[in-house]
Automatic annotation (TrEMBL):
InterPro entries linked: Peptidyl-Arg-deiminase_porph
Organism in which the protein naturally occurs: Dulcicalothrix desertica PCC 7102
Name of the protein: Agmatine deiminase
UniProt xrefs under Gene3D superfamilies: L-arginine/glycine Amidinotransferase, Chain A (3.75.10.10)
Domain of life: Bacteria
Keywords for the protein's UniProt record, in alphabetical order: Hydrolase
Amino acid sequence: MHLIPDWETDHVTLVLPTVYMDIYNDYLCELELFYADFLVEISKFDKVTCIVPNQAHREKMSRLSGVNPSIFYISCVKDIWLRDFTPVQLDKCYAKFIYNPSYCASHLNESTEQSCMEYFRVASEGNANIIPIDICLEGGNFICNGQGTVIMTEKLYSRNKSKSREEIESLLKNNLPIEKLVVIPVEPGDRTGHIDGMIRWLDRERIVINDYNYANVHSRRFVDKLHACLDKHLPNVERIEIPYCPSPNKTYGWYNASGNYINFLRTKNMVYVPIYGIPEDEDAKEKYSQIFGKHVCFLDANAIAKYGGVFNCITITYKSGLIPI
C-alpha cells in the first residue's frame, strides 16, 4: 500500500465559487472568467470535474468556457479550497483527516466537510473505502513522495495540542504507509501554516522550495532553521530553489499569493504553474521549463491569488482506475 503522489494522478476536481459563498461575491465575475480559462487549459491534458451547485451554473460555465457540459457535476460543496478537506488517496483506499483549520469558524468547517463528503459518497456510489484518522490536518499541509516520506509543517502539532507529538506521529504512521515524517517550521506570516506553498516533491529524491533569499522578506533565523531541518532529515534529497516574491497586499485579511510559484497543480500529464504579470514570472518560467521541459504550462492566477492561494489549493487530484470516485 502506498500514498499516491501527484505525478501519478490524472483526474482534477475543483469547485466553482458562487453567489452562495459570500466572501467571493466582490470579485465573482472575475473569478468565473478565471475558472472558465482554467478549465479550458486543464481539459486539454487531463480529465476534469467542476462541481457546481445547480443546472443554471452548469449552463453558464459551459457557455463561458466552451468545454463539454458533462464535466460539470451538480453538488453543493460549500467552499473552493478543495485540497484541504477532501480525502487523501492511497492505492487501495482513501484516508480522511479531521477538517478544522484555525483560520475558519468551527461550525463552517464542519458544514464544509459534510458537504464535501456527501459529494464524495454520491460520486463514488458509496463504494469508496475511507479510513478516518483522528488528526486535525488540512490536505495543503501534506505532501508525499509516494515512497513513504511525507513533509508537513509544525502546524500539525499546534492543531492537535490534546495529543503528544509521539501520539500524533504514531496515529499517522499506524494508519498510513509513512516511513519518514519530516516536520518543518511554519513560514512566518502564513495564516494557513501549509506546506504546499513552501515545498513540493518533484520525485522521490528531489524537491522544489521557495528561495527565501530571493526577496529578503523573511528572517535569517527562519531560513536557517528550515534548511537545518531539511539537512538533518532529508540529507540526500536535492533542493531546487524557485523564485519567491510574496506580496504585501491583503484581501479580507489574507495575503495575496502573487509571487508564489510553488503552489502549482501537477498531474502525470502536465504541470500548471501560476504566473502574475510581474518580473519574477520570467525567472520562474525558466526554472520550471528546465525541470519539466514541454510538460509545463503557465497560467495567470491573479484572480484567485488575491484570496491567499492558487492552483494546488483549489484542486484535488486522483489517479483514475484505482478506487471509485
